[in-house]
């Protein structure tokens, strides 16, 4: 059996731990198609936060307490960069993490595509699932903010056209520096129009026995994957069932800032809201099944089979149990 | 008064500490023209060992015990790079050092010339002397080795033409990895033909009251500076006296591997040998004065005034005293 998962970030990494655990018990192979919209170049280093979160977590090298980055991390390089006055100071670049970015940057500059680089990095981490970035092209999520609100929050608005009432910042600046406190007007996936699905992604979707949408942020983790032309069509045309797992439990995100992201695009922060956003395959959407938490058992999404199971990813076993329920919902 | 110093490496850095100390007592300004032949790009980072040695030493950030690199250095990034199998493993890249290289690389990639980058880095370190790289162009010292000897020492000779009896390696590979144990056939300053003196260097030589050649390695620290077209002419045409300080005391280098470098080009490892290599300005060479240690008091270089003074740079005061003797020898 082949399970393909669309995922991003920390939530995706935790979910994939459960997928891997369950896949091992049933002898299934797992392909994870990972969001690249969070990617950013800082200090000349190509940083892929979602790929790294998944790789470190599945490879046992993540910091469980802090929730991101490497275990036993040190921050000597960052401290020194600050001493040189190298902006931006707000991004948490650990020394161990920097080695990953250096390795990636050297390989990218040598001409290897991101998917090949990811494969090379995974030879060290042995994540136990096949990890593929959504695209090899550079595609980065940016956030449009109201100019006055951005300026009040300390954003450099000098480069925005004088007549514009909006400024656009990289997702990382909005997420990490501003902590999402300035309302997002919209999200823009810069480079998406030129992006192509990375080698292996379309095949992994077409050839899957089931496709799972991880309980990742629907707006900034899952949507950018489908912003890659061809990816959405692949999901709609695969013979496999497509089961989504709700990232919202009882009206709140399991983790992160999905509530702020959903609000900015006018989607209700609920299992129903996100289910409707993904939509039913029968009506131009993606889902055949939608897995929600028991507190959201009343959820309905027209054309989609909704089932409930506990969605708190407290440990691998709990998460594997979610995955079992998702597979069951997909009829596999 | 303006003192201009041609220098490279650790020996140059120590000498410049003495120059700075003496310049402070007499109210002189110091310009240091620094060798870039040791520069190398590793892991995508532009590394300038001589510029950094001088900058860290004069800025009080050098490791006095180890003799190179930063004080309180850690090696987390390097350890991680090794875990990724990133070659070369033999180069000691510390975390603090890496921040310097990252800052430099970002600025170079943004289009700033090395001289401007050096000035920017020095705003942090405040070395107290004006530091200028010999050239803004990329010019790197390479070493030709006998193919059979190189292969026996573990050098990858597969990229050398099959018919060639020599292979060429970067100076750092010969110096750090091979520790100079394979005989150098010759030194090649790759890029020298396209190099131009960095802004300010020719003016600093022409406008100096005295030019000093630091007791740095004559073959791989001083010679590459003069390999930059125009630099030698500037030294020969300046109205200022040019006083060299011998890096050899009693037939041995003060530090480093000048003996191996000199042997490879057939120069005797002695104050006389190096003095003759630099030569007298009157006879197509560079020197008006040559400062040697008392053990080498019998040294003669035709056309050059030779004087002796203790040349062991045991502390800033001893070195400042050498500088005072050099200035006196130059008649300033």
From TrEMBL, chains A, B:
Q: Which GO terms of the molecular function aspect are on file?
A: LPPG:FO 2-phospho-L-lactate transferase activity; magnesium ion binding
Keywords on record = Magnesium, Transferase
Superkingdom, according to UniProt?
Bacteria
A Pfam family (short name) is CofD
What Enzyme Commission number(s) appear in the record? 2.7.8.28
The keyword NAD is annotated on this UniProt entry: no
Q: What is this protein called?
A: LPPG:FO 2-phospho-L-lactate transferase
Species for this entry: Allocatelliglobosispora scoriae
From the broadest rank down, the organism's phylogenetic lineage runs: Bacteria, Bacillati, Actinomycetota, Actinomycetes, Micromonosporales
